[in-house]
Amino acid sequence: MHQLLPIRSQHRHLLLFFLLSLFSFSVALPLQPYSDTLARKAALFSSLAYGEPACIAANSIYNSTCQLPEFTILHTYLSPPRARDAFAYIGMDVKEKLIVVAFKGSNDTEDYIIDIAGPVRYRFPCSIGGVELGQTHHGFCAYYRSLAVLGLAWEVTRMWEEKKGEYTVLVTGHSLGGAAATLCAADLGKRFGLSTLLYTFGEPRVGDADFASSLASHSLGSYRVVHASDCVPHLPPCCGGLRKEQCHPKPDCPFHHGQEVWYDNRMGEGAPFVMCPGDEDEDACTNGSVTSVSDHKYYFGERLGTWCCFPPLPPDFYSTSSTSSGSDSSSRSVSLNGLEMEEKAAVSMRVAMKQ
After folding, report:
1. What is residue 283's three-state secondary structure?
2. Is 230 a catalytic residue?
3. Active site residue 324
4. From CA 239, how far away is CA 253, in angstroms rounded?
């Protein structure tokens, strides 16, 4: 786990930031088109962030459906106890030449939705390291800041420079993790001049229209993937949205960034999707389809909060659970039943998508 950077290390990183800024602002990098294949992999990366931090740090979190032999988690970041329950990791995919930054979402989906459901205005800027990223949701900013102060963005920049720009930085997350991923992309762009590829899933509105515009100037591609009637991408409500109008890009009003990619289906292999026009809700896409919590939890047929979060069972698990006695036996049985139910639900959904 990472702690605050020492002063001498910060000075070295400031020099690195200056040199990278000279290079980054002199090169106009083309936008990368949306990739369904990469989106499915990014969803897996996002799901990994929900796992137990110690297991993730040890690269031992994968279950049988989450094997990534070319991918290694290199750094993990956990906010102080009782601060924000924030977690993120940095990994490297040598096959795809990706530096992956993934953020954990909320552990309690229903409470999280209630917290962001009411009308709100973004009146205060999100400031990281003395640099203003734009006017954003205060809670989202605080969540990301609790990880940024641990040196996360510094390390991403260092790794990218070490690879001499041959790797692409992919920033990703689901739900609250998607909001943190967006702020991380803005941070890397504004503080370090580093353009990133951003894929999020079920992301809420992070900032206002000016923030959205600023984010685009440092983007290799910004894609908000939305599953059918997922309600969270419509929260907090935009200005005009409660009156069934198009969202207004007024100052301080919640407003989406980037390209919405809408899957109005179960998101099985080869499922069609719509590249929605504009940054905000459109009648051609999810505008008005805002009712489902289940669609928020499931992407590409998997529940992102639990997809990759079961470590492999030991070979003698079934035999020991059947012969153990007392409270230990009971707890093992409950754990196994919960695991079986989760696996059966995922299998059932995968089978249904193939029919």
Report:
1. coil
2. yes
3. no
4. 6
